[in-house]
Amino acid sequence: MTQTTTEAGERDSLGFAGAAIFNFVFMIFINAHEAWRPWLEGIVTASFKDVLWAVNLGFVLQIFGNLILSVSSPRPLRGLTELVCSVGALAGAVVFYRVFPLELSRFGDSAQTLGHTLAFVGVAASAMAIL
User: Which residue from 101, 83, 97 is spatially nearest to 33, judged by alpha carbons?
Assistant: First the structure.
């Protein structure tokens, strides 16, 4: 049995709407860092607040992009939305890498280096998504 384009479009719309809701909830959680940061005392540093603007920018772009695509997702609009979201993700990744609000040395000598490396991989992946 084949799927009609209407059924596929409805499935895509629900997927985009679900992604928007997930990103919104996760953004609220991240911004409530004063509530959850004490649980991670010594790991997440006070400089975490310095990366929030960039992380929030990425989330807001993702949320609005997914909401727009949940209503209409022609190929050119989808491509533009993916580009704008990737630029937002790159900004967030670069700020996170530069500030690096984590103190991972308590997990071993190489943990801090590994964390920085993973943050750099995030920057590189975001840059490649734009290209």
Answer: 101
User: Residue 73 corresponds to which tokens in the numbers above?
Assistant: 């997702």
Does residue 49 contact residue 33 with C-beta atoms inside 8 Å? yes
Q: How many domains does the chain have?
A: 1
- What backbone torsions phi and psi does residue 74 show, to the nearest 5 degrees? -65, 155
- Which residue range is the domain that position 21 belongs to? 5-130
Write out pLDDT tens, residues 37-94. 788 888 888 899 999 999 999 999 999 999 999 998 788 899 999 999 999 999 999 9
**pTM (predicted TM-score):** 0.80
Query: In the numeric block, which tokens belong to residue 14?
Result: 């629900």
Write the DSSP string, 35-47.
Answer: HHGGGGTTTB-GG
Inter-axis angle of helices 75-99 and 52-71, nearest 10: 170
> Residue 102 gets which letter from DSSP?
B
